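Minutes, project check-in

Agenda point 3 was the complex the collaborators sent over. CS summarized: two entities, 225 residues total, and the question is how they sit relative to each other. Sequences were read into the notes so everyone works from the same version.
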Amino acid sequence: AQSVTQLGSHVSVSEGALVLLRCNYSSSVPPYLFWYVQYPNQGLQLLLKYTTGATLVKGINGFEAEFKKSETSFHLTKPSAHMSDAAEYFCAVRGENTPLVFGKGTRLSVIA
Amino acid sequence: DTGVSQNPRHKITKRGQNVTFRCDPISEHNRLYWYRQTLGQGPEFLTYFQNEAQLEKSRLLSDRFSAERPKGSFSTLEIQRTEQGDSAMYLCASRQGGTLEQYFGPGTRLTVT
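CS then shared the predicted structure for the full assembly.
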């Protein structure tokens, strides 16, 4: 069984500040890990994914995440927040032949 | 637009009515997924097709729900005798076999009154 815990349902940062969204996962098989972003009344867009290999993965819009197996974490970061980053962010995990399992999401607010 | 499309985008229905949603995946994608997302929650897996075969169904998919993908292209999700608890966003996603990334459609928002 797989599960995802996203710490903090709402994170608020100032424009230009560091963004850190936390994700911890549980998986009985080697995980594939994903971060998706959802803007209001829209579907989900993939930001980045970890499969194998390099544990620091870079995604779109300046986001990156680091897979830490020992901590079962896959936190999402961005050095400098922009107003357009305000959205809902979902961490998800899946195995080789299992469906995506999502966390409950973290809403990011960016304050001018 | 070559992305995943879903119709309708919004549906308001009265309790007890049947509703049907359609998903058109990216044309070369043979895998198709349905998810349900309620307010304040992440998407939850409902069912999965590989070509026309429905390979997996979640326990969330009660017997009032049925999904089809008759020709391995578009898919429909039908909810019979809708209940207020069915109010949610229904998301469709597709991917090509051998790849990991699922591409999501914009969703159909269902409101049951």
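Noted in discussion: The CA atoms of residues 12 and 109 of chain A lie 5 Å apart.
Follow-up: revisit at the next meeting once the mutant set is ready.
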